[in-house]
Specification:
There is one protein chain. The chain is of the alpha/beta class. The protein has two domains: 130 residues, Aspartate Aminotransferase, domain 1, CATH 3.90.1150; 241 residues, Type I PLP-dependent aspartate aminotransferase-like (Major domain) (Aspartate Aminotransferase, domain 2). It is built from eleven helices and twelve strands. The strands form three sheets. A seven-stranded mixed β-sheet has the order 2-8-7-6-5-3-4, sandwiched between helices. A three-stranded antiparallel β-sheet has the order 9-10-12, with no helix packed on it. Helix 4 links the parallel strand 3 and strand 4. Helix 8 runs parallel beside helix 11.
Length: 379
């Protein structure tokens, strides 16, 4: 039985060439990058080449790219660092952010007595620009606005330019969790009023345990991990050279092949929606138009009581998809994102997130649609 992997928003299969470059670096570039001899300098060159490649693609300075273990650490570093360094008094966010943001802002509220405000969102999962301006205009408190670019569960996408301009108008710092963006969309940060963003390599066929934070030079932070001068003094500890090399190649591949890969994935998503609409009375959770081409969240006419047997049969057929984000899939609680955008009646039915990559195919879509057709007819 061939397996079908439609859970690429959780993580993507690592590319073979990325595995190979990581193996070669582990084998040949073992020097500590802080050492001044040739072994250390060779390792250091891998780090700085990666930093240069990322900064050129995003149109920022190399010094503004800080390597981390991924999105969760980057979000923690930025939010906690901004509160401490810039004396943030108020954080504005939404209740549909990733847990890496939600739990961090809640922690800041308790530890630093920061005012925490949640923006209202519409039924598509988009925060209100009008309400954001009202809040920013109501007080001169030093403010951090934290809004994810692409929601990891429903794929809804905000306009970074519009929210960034509003934050600049009111002299507020703007952070965006762009973990579902980097590697899938081009960003020119020289044209966006954004102070901080985040990245995880495993979302675009790179290794787990590596990512980066973008920190604009005029929004510097205090040290997040002490005990060394690595990463501009922000993150002490010997750098993971092989992971950084893997990030570099995965990042370069993603943007080199972006047009071709995105075209293929868009066609798969479009075909999937068409086939589902032909067979079932479904609802797309989130936006139809303003959404990521890699994520599709579907509300099926299946009672939530059928979830255990559905999950069992999906697994039996080798079909991987998600009822929410992978970070909370072990929980029995309903998705915090869907709870905010669906009414009490709709939340009683099953919603499934399908997320795609360049490795998926139309044939896989047909097999998944046929599976749901059989399941619904049986139940």
């Amino acid at each position: 039985m061939s397996k079908i992997y439609f859970d690429n928003a959780a993580t993507t299969p690592i590319s073979n060439d990325v595995v190979e470059i990581m193996y070669q670096v582990m084998k040949n570039n073992f020097g500590n990058p802080s050492s001044i001899h040739s072994f250390g300098r060779e390792s250091r060159s891998i780090i700085e080449l990666t930093r240069k490649n990322i900064s050129e693609e995003l149109n920022v300075k190399p010094s503004e790219i800080i390597f981390t273990s991924g999105g969760t650490e980057s979000n923690n570093m930025i939010i906690k660092g901004a509160v401490e360094t810039h004396k943030i008094e108020r954080i504005i966010t939404t209740k549909i952010e990733h847990k890496a943001v939600l739990e961090t802002v809640e922690s800041c509220k308790i530890k630093y007595h920061v005012e925490l405000i949640y923006l209202p969102i519409d039924n598509k999962g988009l925060p209100s620009l009008i309400e954001l301006e009202k809040i920013l205009d109501s007080s001169n408190k030093r403010t951090l606005v934290s809004l994810m670019h692409i929601n990891n569960e429903i794929g809804s996408m905000i306009d970074l330019n519009e929210y960034g301009k509003l934050c600049k108008k009111y002299n507020s710092l703007f952070h965006s969790d762009t973990v579902q963006t980097i590697g899938h969309y081009k960003l020119d940060l020289s044209k966006l009023n954004i102070d901080f963003l985040t990245c995880s390599a495993h979302k675009f066929h790179g290794p787990k345990g590596i990512g980066f934070a973008f920190l604009r030079n005029n929004s510097k932070l205090n040290s997040f991990i002490e005990g060394g001068s690595q990463e501009r003094g922000l993150r002490g500890g010997t750098e993971s050279i092989h992971n950084i090399a893997g990030l570099n190649l995965a990042f370069l591949n993603a943007y080199k092949n972006l047009e071709k890969d995105s075209k293929k994935i868009k066609s798969i998503k479009k075909y999937f929606i068409e086939k589902l609409n032909q067979e079932f009375d479904i609802k797309i959770n989130g936006c139809k138009d303003e959404s990521s081409y890699t994520i599709l969240n579907i509300l099926f006419p299946i009672s939530i009581s059928k979830k255990p047997i559905l999950n069992f049969k999906l697994d039996l057929q080798g079909i991987a998809c998600s009822g929410g984000s992978a970070c909370q899939s072990g929980s029995d609680k309903p998705s915090h994102v869907l709870s905010e955008i669906l009414g009490p009646d709709l939340i009683k039915n099953i919603s499934i997130r399908f997320s795609f990559s360049k490795l998926n195919s139309i044939d896989e879509v047909d097999k998944v649609v046929n599976f749901f057709k059989e399941f619904i007819n049986e139940n």
